[in-house]
């Protein structure tokens, strides 16, 4: 037997799912928290399943049933919003809210241009960016916190659907006064740096990839510092040691005023892939598809389309 639910209840559900908080969602929807809780309770009854798990002092998170509903109802609500335009045979532009997850090294260099172009093309879409490390973005994508993400091709689940936008080979970074700096752009062997202090970009999955490069050539690095910030790594390298990174910046300046130099690596080592990703089994909204098109134009690369 069909169970009654409303588009308003689905909109309330999506707001709570994306904010992961009844209080924040109620404020954004301009409804009372009690009315929002009642709406969610009616929707759970109609679905015959619990959609949220209450987390003390942290808000709510989606259950497996809730996650499946979120992936189904985002394109459903978008289609409902576009129904009047379809009846009038109008070609209505994408609108509404789009949450995008971005891994920090991608965000700092590529994202401003992508967001500016997307906003120019689709001014009716409210774009929200969730920036963080690789694991944070992966979890946001899987939990429904964002609909689409830009991240690196490392430590990902088989359940994600991805498209390669760019490949970034690793390179060595040294200070401008380093003995190898004059060799720029290189190449330099990792073996030549085996006895020098390594400044490691210490992020989930990134550290495993970087240390794996040394394993591949039989070098055991002397890790001197571990930092989670890309710019912190660059600033320390300007003073001592070296780093292995993938994202080449168009300048050698650091936040402390020091300078660094990028060197190619002599060994043939695997690059990092920049991916556009979404949860497998979900249907992309027109907003997400439009964002994907802008990303493809900014970062052209091979791969099946998301």
UniProtKB/TrEMBL annotation:
<keyword id="KW-0238">DNA-binding</keyword>
<dbReference type="InterPro" id="IPR036390">
    <property type="entry name" value="WH_DNA-bd_sf"/>
</dbReference>
<dbReference type="Pfam" id="PF00126">
    <property type="entry name" value="HTH_1"/>
</dbReference>
<dbReference type="GO" id="GO:0032993">
    <property type="term" value="C:protein-DNA complex"/>
</dbReference>
<dbReference type="InterPro" id="IPR036388">
    <property type="entry name" value="WH-like_DNA-bd_sf"/>
</dbReference>
<dbReference type="InterPro" id="IPR005119">
    <property type="entry name" value="LysR_subst-bd"/>
</dbReference>
<dbReference type="Pfam" id="PF03466">
    <property type="entry name" value="LysR_substrate"/>
</dbReference>
<protein>
    <submittedName>
        <fullName>DNA-binding transcriptional LysR family regulator</fullName>
    </submittedName>
</protein>
<keyword id="KW-0804">Transcription</keyword>
<feature type="domain" description="HTH lysR-type">
    <location>
        <begin position="5"/>
        <end position="63"/>
    </location>
</feature>
<keyword id="KW-0805">Transcription regulation</keyword>
<dbReference type="GO" id="GO:0003700">
    <property type="term" value="F:DNA-binding transcription factor activity"/>
</dbReference>
<dbReference type="GO" id="GO:0003677">
    <property type="term" value="F:DNA binding"/>
</dbReference>
<dbReference type="InterPro" id="IPR000847">
    <property type="entry name" value="LysR_HTH_N"/>
</dbReference>
<comment type="similarity">
    <text>Belongs to the LysR transcriptional regulatory family.</text>
</comment>
């Amino acid at each position: 037997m069909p169970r009654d639910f409303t588009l308003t209840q689905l909109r309330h559900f999506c707001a709570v799912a994306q904010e992961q908080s009844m209080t924040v969602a109620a404020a954004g929807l301009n409804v009372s928290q009690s009315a929002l809780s009642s709406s969610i309770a009616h929707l759970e009854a109609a679905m015959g399943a619990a959609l949220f798990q209450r987390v003390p002092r942290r808000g709510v998170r989606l259950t497996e049933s809730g996650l499946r509903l979120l992936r189904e109802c985002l394109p459903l609500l978008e289609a409902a919003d576009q129904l009047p335009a379809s009846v009038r045979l109008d070609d209505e532009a994408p609108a509404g809210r789009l949450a995008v997850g971005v891994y920090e090294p991608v965000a700092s260099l590529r994202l401003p241009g992508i967001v500016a172009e997307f906003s120019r093309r689709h001014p009716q879409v409210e774009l929200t960016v969730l920036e963080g490390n690789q694991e944070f973005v992966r979890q946001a994508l899987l939990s429904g916190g964002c609909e689409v993400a830009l991240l690196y091709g490392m430590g990902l689940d088989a359940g994600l659907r991805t498209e390669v936008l760019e490949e970034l080979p690793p390179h060595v970074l040294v200070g401008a006064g380093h003995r190898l700096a004059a060799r720029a752009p290189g190449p330099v062997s990792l073996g030549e740096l085996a006895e020098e202090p390594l400044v490691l970009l210490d992020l989930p999955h990134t550290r495993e990839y970087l240390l794996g490069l040394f394993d591949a050539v039989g070098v055991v690095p002397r890790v001197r510092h571990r930092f989670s910030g890309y710019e912190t790594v660059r600033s320390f390298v300007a003073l001592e040691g070296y780093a292995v990174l993938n994202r080449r910046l168009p300048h050698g300046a650091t936040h402390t005023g020091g300078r660094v130099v990028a060197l190619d690596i002599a060994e043939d080592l695997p690059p990092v892939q920049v991916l556009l990703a979404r949860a497998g089994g979900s249907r992309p909204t027109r907003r997400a598809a439009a964002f994907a098109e802008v990303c493809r134009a900014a970062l052209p690369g091979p791969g099946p389309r998301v």
